[in-house]
């Protein structure tokens, strides 16, 4: 059964710092991996989706990488801003679960000014 | 383009009651999935509907059910509510529900059971 883990559970950084969020998964037979952002009391906003055949995706200050063989993904945030404060979730779609997303429990990021 | 709309945003119910939550997907999207989010368990998949048919189901008791209408709108019903059903219920839609299509989420319905 696929399990997704995100470490650390919480992270605090000063504004301007570059940071990396980690996501690991136990079964490498995935279709894709998706990173989401969740603000308090809100739904999920899709940030990046990496297909299983891809190594990375970029959007603005965000870069996500995927190493399927080792079961790892990272989300790199450059020049962090207070507006980046949120919970970041990664989710995989794998062969066993079909169309369901399997989520990690997230990393709560706080960026101070 | 309007996003995924969930109604109501907040609900308070008592144990034993039943509740119906509604989700309107993005226009043109035919797949609707439901998730439950709690502090302890995180986000867990409930079920997915595509063209009015349940295509996938998570590991939840039969008290949780859903349906999808011909206009792709979906409803989720929970019967005989328990305290543990208190959660944020999120709906997500995608165009065809294929494995490599991104899912777009609504803001959820916060259900509180007293």
Oligomer: heterodimer
Tertiary shape of chain B: globular
Mean pLDDT of chain B equals: 94
Q: Termini separation of chain B (Å)? A: 37 Å
- Number of helical segments of chain B? 0
Number of strand elements of chain A: 11
Number of helical elements of chain A = 0
- Low-confidence spans of chain A: none
Rg of chain B, alpha carbons: 13 Å
The computed structural class of chain B is: mainly beta
Describe the main β-sheet of chain A briefly: 6 strands, mixed
Number of strands of chain B: 11
Radius of gyration of chain A: 13 Å
Roughly what fraction of the amino acids of chain B lie in strands? over 45%
Mean pLDDT value of chain A: 94
| Helical content band of chain A | under 10%
Q: Summarize the helix and strand pattern of chain A as letters.
A: EEEEEEEEEEE
Which parts of chain B are unreliable, with pLDDT below 50 for 5 consecutive residues or more? none
Largest sheet properties of chain B: 7 strands, mixed
The chain-level structural class of chain A is: mainly beta
N-to-C span of chain A: 41 Å
Structural write-up:
The complex is a heterodimer of chains A (113) and B (114). Chain A is built from no helices and 11 strands. Chain A is mainly β. In chain A, strand 7 and strand 8 form a beta hairpin. The radius of gyration of chain A is 13 Å and the shape is globular. The mean pLDDT of chain A is 94. By secondary structure, chain B is an all-beta fold. Chain B is built from no helices and 11 strands. Chain B has strands at 5-7, 10-13, 19-24, 31-38, 42-50, 53-57, 64-68, 74-78, 87-94, 104-105, 109-113. In chain B, strands 2, 4, 5, 6, 9, 10 and 11 form a 7-stranded mixed β-sheet that branches. A 4-stranded antiparallel β-sheet of chain B has the order 1-3-8-7, with no helix packed on it. Chain B is globular. The mean pLDDT of chain B is 94.
